[in-house]
Amino acid sequence: MQRIKAFSDKLAIPASSIRYYEKKGLLETKRTENKYRVYDGEDEQRLKLILVMKYSGFSIKEIKELLSFSNTPDEEDCIKRTNDLLLTKREELLVKIANYQKIIDLLDLMRPLAIAEVTEKTTKTLNDLVNLIFDNNLKEE
């Protein structure tokens, strides 16, 4: 068992974030007799899952929903809702990956333009690429 300071240091996140996740119902608070928060290995794994999901673009509401599904894994409705949420998030991530790849391609194309003489043609090429990425991808988000 670790107190909040050691726990937050171990996972390299602020203690305030841990308290926030507790307040939102994502983590359950265990307390000692003198009311100190304490965390064990199970809490560590749950918080790591929360952090990975948050990094992946899940909202707090979505994370809470997914974590609540794990408490009732046998209910058919929960299985369907979990699957739907995961598939939706997967598709969103694939779109983001494709967008990031296009941005990397844009950066690669910009490098030679950055050292080239600025002309109407290079400016138009750059603007066309930026507009293509923006119009086809970023507007959809």
Q: Into which percent range does the helicity of residues fall?
A: over 70%
Strand content: under 5%
Largest sheet: 3 strands, antiparallel
Instruction: Give the N-to-C terminal Cα separation.
Output: 42 Å
Residue-averaged pLDDT, rounded? 83
Report the strand count.
3
> Rg from C-alpha positions?
22 Å
Shape: elongated
Instruction: Report the uncertain regions.
Output: none
Q: How large is the count of helical segments?
A: 6
What structural class is derived from the secondary structure elements?
mainly alpha
Strand order of the biggest β-sheet? 1-3-2
Order of helices and strands: EHHEEHHHH
What can you tell me about this protein's structure?
The chain has about 140 residues and is mainly alpha-helical. About 70% of the residues lie in helices and about 5% in strands. It is built from six helices and three strands. It has helices spanning about 5-10, 15-25, 40-55, 60-70, 75-115, 120-135; strands spanning about 1-5, 30, 35-40. A three-stranded antiparallel sheet has the order 1-3-2. Strand 2 (about 30) and strand 3 (about 35-40) form a beta hairpin. The longest helix has about 40 residues, at about 75-115. It is elongated and about 70 Å long.
